[in-house]
Amino acid sequence: MLRQQFNEALKAAMLAKDSRTVSTVRLIVAALKDRDIAARSRGVTDGISDDEILQMLSQMVKQRRESITLYEQGARLDLAQQETEEIAIIGRFLPKQMDEAEMTEAVKTVLEEIDAKGLKDMGRTMAVLKERFAGSMDFTKASAIVKSQLG
């Protein structure tokens, strides 16, 4: 499903002569091909799943946010703006991101379900969260919420 969205977005961007979207979607497709090739060694011949694609997109957004910070520190606002535009384009393919209250509620629900008691259960909790909310949850923030709930 996501692969088809990438192709459609690429075609639309090319017709609209939107060079930023064309280049960003091409980056996504190239990263996806790299992941597909790497997955072949694990015996996955049909390409990676949509969940793995969502994780890849989330990582791309995270990398760009880190780059923005560095570009702003280096007074390269033009490059920071470019990264911001790419985040917006990548974000089109991601599900709606959970806000702080939604994340807190999801963490509480998972903690109750798996009967987590202390920090030793953090790994288990994060694994369940990543499985259920791939692409829609910022796991850095979620990790902090889990720590505060368990600690």
Summarize the structure in short:
This protein is mainly α and 151 residues long.
3D structure, described in words:
Helix content is 75%, strand content 0%. With 151 residues, the protein is mainly alpha-helical. Helix 6 packs antiparallel against helix 7. The mean pLDDT is 91.
Arithmetic mean of pLDDT: 91
Q: Quick one: biggest sheet?
A: none
- Report helical residue fraction: over 70%
Strand tally is: 0
> SSE order in H/E notation?
HHHHHHH
Looking at the structure, what is the overall shape?
globular
Topology diagram in text:
Layout: H1 2-15, H2 19-40, H3 50-73, H4 77-91, H5 100-114, H6 122-132, H7 139-150
Main features:
151 residues; mainly alpha; 75% helix; 7 helices
